[in-house]
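Per reviewer request, we include the raw input and output of the structure prediction for the construct analysed in the revised manuscript.
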Amino acid sequence: MIALGLILLIIGLLVGMGLLTTIDSVLIVVGAVLWLLGASGRAVGGRKHYF
């Protein structure tokens, strides 16, 4: 999710679309939060691991 957000953020900045940049920022933040929760050992969405 973080990688997708970064790719779309770069595209949004190059094209100049403000809405795309906003959506990408949200994707990056949500991906970072899920990553941190998963790294700390907390279950996210009822699961400890996603395979």
